[in-house]
Recover the amino acids of this structure.
């Protein structure tokens, strides 16, 4: 489904701020894989998602989605394959537009936009039903501006938008990190429900090791722009936080990173 | 005495206000919808008039000449759009570059710095001469129809899929791209539409005044902003629907020209109006900032702090 081959990405090359974010990253996802991604700050997690979505171009390597080489495609041309939820609740929605308008934009992801109506009556009914699933009362506020919603409501809406047209790949970039624990749990539940329902191939970055262990069928740890731990299936199910730390120390060759990883 | 003179001037105020409102609506598209200040309009505000007069003098009928002016404006918007999106130049600078280049282009089009056109010799749609007549050729009526048609067409367009894509681009470009919108294309499209309308307004103004001047666009962007901001401040709370928002721009433009007329009658020269306009716009832009900074009673609610 997704294949990353030997991806290199360096920011500000040749300056004092040079930062090697991805350093020969290889990763291959099978159809229906739900992969949680962990790693310390600067390990390259967000860069990996941004490289997949096309927000950043790669210095070296290639990216395949569903067999198609998308390495050179601009961001908007990859959008048909990809649904995204960002860490910042402000990023995924248009604040000055209505809830239903945002959904209508998402419903046309990957389609030619012409001079037909931007939103139809039939769509409105459909959105009302879909919003009910979230259980946030948004179904009665279709024409409210998204800017009036809370961070949690916006993330839930973004999640709905990302999956409105079934994406081949769902990218979640710490999408609950900016929310309070209760809301985060709600949004995570909704994520689990939707991913299971549509059997979506998913990459979910999280800072929370317990979430990383509790969700998905596969866990990947990045360190220094590379995959250093890759656990799946039965092994993943039996995984504990202690195991993860142990694995991390083996991979990075030090123990000092313990706190860094735990605290980050 | 003063009131009488003012009343006498009112028809002219209405006609000019309506003509400039089309220009201000163009500014609204870039400034409010695309969230991108476009300075091209200072150049386009002359280009439209120049193209109209040249084509009209060459014997074209006014509707074709008007269309030519509109297309010329769109080309100017295209230039700025490509400088911005394809060449990565910041929008403000891209607009300034096009505007500067247009100065030469406008002189080339007209062949001289000022070009008159007589309503006696040519078939014109509006003329200041008829502004007090009760007839179908009264410029107030004609301009009212143009303004209404502009609002109608824009209301329709920004409700379409493509129009929504343009709005999304201005509201949140990263979200727009994530939804598969080519934001470079929508930005260029918005700039073209905006400058096309500005040129249309310029073409009407040239007919109304009976001439086009290479300097007639100077400061146009600020007048457009003034109309947008005045309309928003006075009617923004009441007018929420998109068509009404555009209507508030028209009111803003009319009020601007009313104030303009009053100031002139009070004895200031029209050259002084540029300073006054700049001050008005600066003040209206500063007030919301001051309000937020010095008169905040409650801390702003963080977006992520509650659900």
């Amino acid at each position: 489904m997704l294949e990353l081959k030997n991806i290199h990405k360096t920011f500000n090359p040749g300056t004092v701020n040079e930062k090697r974010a991805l350093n020969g990253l290889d990763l291959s996802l099978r159809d229906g894989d739900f992969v949680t991604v962990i790693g310390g700050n600067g390990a390259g997690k967000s860069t990996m998602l941004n490289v997949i979505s096309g927000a950043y171009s790669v210095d070296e390597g290639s990216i395949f989605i569903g067999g198609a080489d998308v390495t050179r495609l601009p961001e908007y041309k990859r959008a048909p394959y990809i649904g995204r939820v960002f860490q910042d609740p402000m990023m995924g929605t248009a604040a000055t537009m209505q809830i239903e308008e945002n959904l209508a934009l998402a419903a046309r992801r990957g389609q030619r936009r012409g001079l037909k109506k931007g939103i139809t009556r039939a769509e409105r009914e459909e959105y009302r039903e879909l919003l009910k699933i979230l259980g946030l009362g948004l179904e009665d506020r279709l024409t409210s501006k998204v800017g009036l919603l809370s961070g949690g409501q916006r993330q839930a809406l973004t999640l709905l938008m990302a999956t409105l047209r079934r994406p081949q790949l769902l990218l979640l970039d710490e999408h609950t990190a900016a929310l309070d624990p209760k809301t985060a749990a709600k949004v995570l539940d909704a994520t689990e429900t939707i991913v299971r329902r549509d059997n979506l191939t998913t990459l979910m970055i999280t800072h929370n090791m317990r979430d990383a262990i509790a969700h998905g069928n596969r866990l990947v740890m990045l360190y220094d722009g590379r995959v250093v731990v890759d656990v799946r299936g039965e092994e993943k199910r039996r995984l504990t936080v202690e195991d993860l730390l142990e694995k991390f120390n083996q991979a990075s060759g030090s123990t000092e990173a313990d706190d860094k990883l735990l605290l980050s | 005495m003063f009131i009488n003179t003012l009343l006498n001037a009112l028809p002219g105020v209405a006609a000019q206000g309506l003509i400039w409102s089309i220009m201000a609506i163009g500014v609204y598209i870039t400034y409010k919808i695309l969230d991108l200040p476009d300075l091209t309009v200072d150049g386009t505000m002359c280009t439209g008039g120049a193209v109209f007069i040249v084509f009209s003098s060459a014997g074209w009928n006014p509707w074709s000449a008007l269309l030519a002016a509109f297309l010329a404006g769109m080309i100017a918007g295209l230039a700025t759009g490509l400088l911005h999106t394809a060449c990565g130049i910041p929008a403000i600078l891209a607009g300034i570059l096009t505007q500067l280049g247009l100065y030469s282009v406008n002189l080339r089009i007209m062949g001289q710095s000022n070009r008159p056109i007589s309503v006696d010799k040519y078939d014109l749609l509006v003329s200041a001469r008829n502004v007090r007549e009760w007839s179908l050729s009264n410029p107030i009526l004609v301009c009212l129809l143009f303004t209404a048609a502009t609002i109608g067409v824009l209301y329709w367009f920004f409700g379409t899929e493509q129009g929504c894509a343009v709005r999304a681009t201005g509201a949140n470009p990263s979200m727009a791209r994530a939804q598969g919108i080519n934001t470079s294309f929508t930005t260029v499209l918005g700039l073209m539409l905006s400058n096309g309308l500005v040129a249309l307004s310029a073409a009407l103004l040239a007919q109304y005044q009976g001439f086009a001047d290479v300097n007639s666009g100077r400061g146009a962007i600020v007048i457009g902003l003034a109309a947008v901001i005045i309309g928003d401040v006075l009617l923004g709370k009441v007018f929420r629907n998109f068509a009404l928002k555009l209507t508030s721009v028209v009111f803003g433009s009319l009020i601007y020209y009313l104030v303009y007329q009053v100031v002139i009658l009070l004895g200031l020269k029209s050259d002084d109006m540029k300073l006054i306009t700049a001050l008005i716009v600066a003040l209206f832009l500063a007030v919301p900032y001051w309000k937020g900074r010095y008169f905040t009673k409650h801390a702003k609610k963080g977006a992520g702090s509650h659900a």
The beta strands of chain B are 114-116, 211-213.
